């Protein structure tokens, strides 16, 4: 057993940190199997050595976020505990992670795992980033958040969000309605992300002006996209030819993020995923980065992470038996 005590100096921030009736402390206790005592600005943590260190790290993360004006609730606490247990080697790395906050009109958005922090850092640093991994890890959401933040800062003029309109084929003719009505259901997750970050009237105005464009992959052909932040979602369902077409749209002062889950390829049997092909082809090219998420990075409902882990375990078992 270990015990550690420390003092936090801002009374108002401490009140936000501990939560109503110490609810945030109780949640950390439950998640890390520690005991946390709070007397004014004095915090004491008791438990196994590694758990105590993680609890202290989680509290420091939350205190730092509170100092930036972020409200501390259950999701913030869970994210801090997740971050505290991630393998981060130096204090400077921890500080860099804690300092990442993307400002949008409606909310502050920040990484909830070390992988998410790395992903944001890579998107800031590189012109082309591949985000790989299961649903619920925040790949597309964080890319949209960075794009919105950069647009609000004036760093880019346009946000372009794209995905294959239908799994692998983009065959829209059998669907009812005009082209927009045919395409919109497949692009709904991209709209949802935007409306969470910007007022509805601003999103609608920017869509009308073409400053935000949400379009199926086929609409990218023949274009050069400059001064833009370009995101391709569900990229595992592109063919190599489609992927090459998309990647070569990159213009001056633009960034491109390509997201997908290689375990969820819906292409016809025998057709190579354009995402897998691009990763193999571009492995040695500079200014291109890839970040891989796992089930431990899932930030949706806790059951989603368990579902992803179960499927990963089964896939691994099948691969070992082949």
Order of helices and strands: EHHEEHHHEEHEHEHHEEHEHEH
Distance between the termini: 45 Å
Q: Which oligomerization state do the chains in this entry correspond to?
A: single chain
Radius of gyration: 22 Å
Overall 3D form:
globular
Number of helical elements: 12
In percent terms, what proportion of residues is strand? 15-25%
**Low-pLDDT stretches:** none
- Structure class: alpha/beta
Write out the strand line-up for the largest beta sheet, numbering strands in chain order: 8-7-9-10-6-11
- How many beta-strand segments? 11
Task: Give the integer mean of the pLDDT values.
Answer: 86
Main pleated-sheet profile: 6 strands, parallel
Helix content: 40-55%
């Amino acid at each position: 057993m270990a015990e550690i005590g420390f003092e936090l100096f801002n009374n108002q921030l401490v009140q936000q940190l501990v939560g109503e009736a110490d609810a945030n402390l109780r949640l950390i206790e439950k998640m890390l199997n520690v005991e946390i005592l709070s007397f004014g600005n004095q915090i004491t943590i008791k438990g196994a050595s590694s758990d105590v260190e993680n609890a202290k790290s989680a509290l420091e993360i939350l205190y730092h976020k509170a100092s930036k004006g972020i409200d501390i609730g259950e999701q913030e606490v869970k994210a801090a505990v997740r971050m505290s247990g991630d393998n981060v080697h130096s204090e400077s790395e921890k500080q860099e992670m804690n300092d990442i906050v993307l400002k949008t009109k409606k909310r502050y958005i920040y990484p909830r795992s070390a992988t998410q922090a790395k992903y944001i850092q890579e998107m800031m640093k590189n012109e082309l980033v591949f985000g790989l991994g299961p649903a619920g890890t925040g790949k597309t959401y964080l890319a949209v958040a960075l794009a919105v933040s950069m647009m609000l800062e004036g760093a880019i003029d346009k946000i372009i969000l794209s995905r294959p309109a239908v799994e692998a084929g983009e065959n829209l003719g059998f669907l009812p309605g005009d082209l927009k009505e045919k395409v919109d259901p497949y692009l709904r997750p991209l709209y949802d992300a935007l409306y969470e970050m910007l007022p509805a009237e601003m999103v609608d105005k920017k869509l009308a002006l073409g400053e935000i464009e949400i379009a199926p992959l086929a609409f990218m052909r023949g274009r050069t996209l400059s001064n833009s932040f370009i995101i391709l979602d569900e990229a595992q369902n592109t063919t190599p030819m489609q992927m090459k077409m998309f990647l070569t749209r990159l213009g001056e002062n633009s960034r491109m993020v390509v997201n997908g889950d290689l375990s969820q390829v819906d292409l016809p049997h025998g057709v190579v995923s354009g995402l897998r092909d691009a990763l193999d082809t571009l492995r040695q090219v500079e200014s291109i980065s890839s970040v891989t998420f796992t089930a431990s990075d899932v930030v949706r409902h806790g059951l989603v992470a368990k579902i992803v882990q179960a499927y990963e375990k089964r896939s691994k078992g099948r691969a070992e038996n082949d």
